[in-house]
Design a protein that fits this description.
The chain is of the alpha+beta class and 115 residues long. It folds into 2 domains: 37 residues; 70 residues, no CATH class. The protein is 27% helix and 22% strand. The chain has a 6-stranded antiparallel β-sheet with strand order 1-6-2-3-4-5, with no helix packed on it. Strand 3 and strand 4 form a beta hairpin. 9% of the residues are buried.
Length: 115
């Protein structure tokens, strides 16, 4: 009895199955990482970003969605000039302004005073 799959199509099938398994494993790892990257409430005064001041006060922020080393940064809420209920979180960089400096933190805490 002959096989319905040729050697080429069998190899292609195994390749697609391996790729699909890799994608599934990757998505599972990302979900697990997102759940574990939220700063512990015991590790300081981290609070959900929704509770941060939106008056231009600089804050220490944390982005739990990134795997970059710079997951902590200072930023402030910059109100939209035309819509007082809108705005963006923007990086704090002295002498630097750019529309591309928007960040999307997930947690925040007040900045500690400088030494």
């Amino acid at each position: 009895m002959s096989s319905l799959l040729t050697p080429e199509s069998d190899a292609e099938y195994r390749f697609r199955a391996a790729v699909n398994q890799f994608i599934s494993d990757y998505r599972e790892a990302v979900r697990a990482q997102e759940q574990h990257r939220a700063p512990s409430q015991d590790s300081g005064n981290w609070q959900p970003i929704e509770t941060a001041p939106q008056d231009g006060t600089p804050i220490l922020a944390f982005d739990s969605r990134t795997t970059a080393p710079a997951d902590r940064f200072t930023c402030f809420w910059r109100k939209d000039a035309f819509d007082p209920d809108a705005g963006i979180w923007q990086l704090c960089r002295p002498g630097f302004y750019s529309e591309d400096a928007e960040v999307k933190p997930t947690y925040w805490m007040p900045l500690h005073p400088a030494p």
